[in-house]
Design a protein that fits this description.
- The chain is 81% helix and 0% strand.
- It has 300 residues and is mainly alpha-helical.
- It has one domain.
- Helix 2 (12-40) packs antiparallel against helix 4, helix 4 (54-74) packs parallel to helix 7 (127-150) and helix 8 (156-187) runs parallel beside helix 12 (233-262).
- The longest helix has 32 residues, at 156-187.
- The protein is globular, with a radius of gyration of 20 Å.
- The protein starts with a helix and ends with a helix.
């Protein structure tokens, strides 16, 4: 055993921290499934297994994945001062992340996609809306994780910083949704993107998922330019917002160029908007996320 510890660099403390983090993570991920059912006013287990509601399953999967992403930002491991602080930190940030993901879903419902009732659509087995809901949750989680890694300590100021970062994220997602709605209307004789979601156009949901997740990745770049300070929360908030706009615009421009090159000769509006080509939409999503990942990595 000592030889194994020497080879791998493991320590007893590290194993205890690992056990603490994994245990809390599993408990919180299980709680997310329960909360998802509660918010939809259904029994999550029955909806998944007995009713075989795939749309609800996709929505829950998005929420669970989102919480998992948030928890990776809450883990400090051996950097924690004690086991007790690690437990408090994981529980506090994990519960805050769970709440913010659900609040983000509510904001997305009421402000971003205000023309459709996502909960009712998901209960009615609309897979497209389930995908859109999952993408929104994951996008929110990506930004919350970035803020968790950006702040230091476990104080009121850090929680305020997390919430302000969350508000910037929601604002950017609403702006991007409005821009994509306008673009869709211009390309399709003033048709409604939200109505297309309600009608079950899966290809559009896949493309939209790439757009909101790439936006979230662009917003996280702000953490590489700003230094966290508990005494400068207002300036940090303004900084996050300004940098988010710049990075989102840059990602959009580079993604548009990449799509023209990679999907040369393909009419994207015709294939995705009108023919509902899931394959082309999937490539679009991959390009959007890839460009955002590369750009944010370069910024780091």
């Amino acid at each position: 055993m000592n030889t194994l510890f020497e080879i791998t660099g493991l320590t007893t403390d590290l194993l205890i921290f690992l056990a603490i983090d994994i245990t809390i993570a599993i408990i919180l991920l299980g709680a997310m499934k329960f909360v998802s059912g509660l918010s939809a006013k259904v029994n999550a287990t029955d909806e998944l297994a007995k009713e075989d509601n795939f749309a609800f399953g996709i929505s829950v999967a998005g929420s669970v994945a989102a919480l998992g992403i948030v928890l990776t930002g809450a883990i400090t491991g051996e950097n924690a001062d004690s086991y007790q602080l690690e437990i408090i930190g994981m529980l506090s940030y994990g519960l805050l992340g769970l709440v913010l993901i659900k609040i983000g879903r509510f904001i997305h419902d009421r402000l971003a996609l205000n023309e459709i009732k996502k909960t009712e659509q998901i209960k009615a087995r609309n897979i497209t809306v389930g995908l859109v809901d999952a993408a929104g949750a994951i996008a929110t989680a990506v930004i919350i994780r970035a803020v968790l890694l950006w702040v230091h300590g476990l104080t009121v100021s850090t929680f305020i910083a997390i919430i302000t970062g969350f508000l910037v994220a929601q604002t950017m997602l609403i702006i991007v949704t409005r821009l994509k709605e306008r673009q869709y209307a211009n390309d399709n004789q003033n048709d409604s993107l939200q109505e297309a979601f309600a009608n079950g156009q899966v290809a559009l949901a896949i493309r939209y998922a790439g757009q909101v997740i790439s936006t979230a990745l662009a917003v996280t770049a702000a953490s590489h330019f700003l230094i966290y300070s508990a005494d400068a929360l207002v300036s940090n908030l303004i900084g996050w917002f300004v940098i988010s706009i710049i990075m989102t615009a840059l990602v959009a421009i580079l993604t548009a160029i990449a799509k023209r090159i990679i999907l040369w000769g393909i009419n994207l509006s015709e294939e995705v908007d009108q023919q509902h080509n899931i394959g082309v939409a999937s490539v679009e999503m991959a390009i959007s996320i890839s460009i955002a990942l590369i750009l944010t990595a370069l910024m780091a």
